[in-house]
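SAMPLE LOG
Freezer: B-3
Tube label: C17
Construct: single chain, 604 aa
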Amino acid sequence: MRNILGISCFYHDSAAALISDGEIVGAVQEERFSRKKFDNSFPRHSIEWLLAENGLSVDDLHSVIFYDNPRIKFKRIIASYLEYAPRGAHTFLQAFPLWVRRKLWVSSIIRKETGYAGGIRFAKHHESHAASAFFPSPFKRAAFLTVDGVGEWDTTTFGSGHDNRLDFQGKIRFPHSLGLLYSVFTYFTGFKVNSGEYKVMGLAPYGEPRYADKILTELMDVKEDGSFRLNMDFFDFPVGVKMINRKFEDFFERSPREEESPLGQDDMDLARSIQDVVEHVMLKMAGHVQKTTGERFLCLSGGVALNCVANGKILRSGLFDDLWVQPASGDAGSALGAALLAWHTILGNKREVDGREDKMKGAYLGPRYTSEDIKDYLDDFEIPYEHVDDIEDVCSDLLAQGKIVGWYSGRMEFGPRALGSRSIIGDARRKEMQKKMNLRIKYRESFRPFAPSVLEEDVEEWFDLDRPSPYMLLVAQVSEGRQKKMSPSEEKLFGIEKLNVPRSEIPAVTHVDYSARVQSVSKETGGKYYRMIHRFKEKTGCPVIINTSFNVRGEPIVCTPEDAYRCFMRTEIDYLVLENFLIDKKKQKPWRDDQEWLKQFEVD
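STRUCTURE (predicted):
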């Protein structure tokens, strides 16, 4: 058996993935173990878990592959600083020792951290993205489009995949980057770059696209084929000092919003404007990709592919018969892409696809904990619980009663979305649920939308979507028959005032523009989660529940039972389900959030 380990690290969201004879057997982000969100350190814990879970040692690895080429990336950084010198000299001098000490010596670090003595390969950044998009897809052949901040030099690539080959046919190079442009506005509206972009997407429907034309005419030049150039007079990111300069601020007649300060209508209008621009450019790109490749299907990856609103627009455009988006489209997924690239392209192994099912196994590729593990933990710390054989039935009753449940079952998800393995769930029919879960459980901004989990067979009845969306990467409108039209007075509401107006039979998951980020749950991959939602439907007539990631703001999704219990006790979640164990908040000892108490939850 040939085992290939893929690794991504040192920038953001480090991860490792393992394939055995072409089968994806595991993939996980380092943050899930370290509990540091977007951890960029070497994924030592991830690699250790992958090997142990599959009964392997490093000596059983056929090869190891890194997701990009550090030497090419370093040359790009040097070239950028030289082009803009002397701007950014101080930042370059600060960054240089880190490159010399760590980032240029990836092979040595891999050997030191793992003890691996075999060959180490290096992919190119966008090769890894493209491989992660096409190779696990259900399509025998398809176009691919990868869009992110920047790899070595490329910020966008496209081409076609056929069997085990990737044919690159076009690219856009740094500093002209759609991902970095979106990050500029993430920073400008007061959110963190590389983590707050999804907040901008969620904020956009509250605003008006007042600045979209200005962005398209002054900040960038977009061609009919979707290629573009940024007006670099407005940006400082090539030299790493900051995202923007004074000219950018003068252009918008404002400064960046301070983090945690109140959101204004102008912030919402900026969010809507950049979102509209990204959708506009992505549609042009998709059209050019289809025309150039002639393919019927499209595969997407790269950080911008997590923009599920843009994905939905591409799907509804009819340019392609279908599209498939890598659920871990950011750099974490590139660890998997690199491993698949090694298996299919470098080693020349053929793909086997059926045109229906992808190879991601529902993205349930992370750690699992057995009932015995969970029982030992609960008993050791004298945590009151009840073992329930039919936990799906009991949980569906709790949801119907308006309770909020932490749901922990099976292997954890790979990628940024909770898909019913490490989720916080509630009744989507209750309009107060969005505000309650945002402010009292997730501890995050009240405007943030929640996603619906819906039984796959009921998707089309409840949403304007005629196909499955298992990875929560497509936005669709709530079906017109399920919508509730606004009154004349409600129609006049502006900005954040729109938040508390119920818009459908499932108001807790219906955004202010009647859209929802849909996750369809199938009987084949959904398992216990599917059965629980099905029970909920039998009792209420509604096959839709709220699904949000099992974590609080600023923390990674929970991994272990200990993580889940800690999060449960620190929030106002009513019940915790750990496999078939039911834990009632009312029966727990008072939570003591001090260091001595927390020591019992530390994981070696």
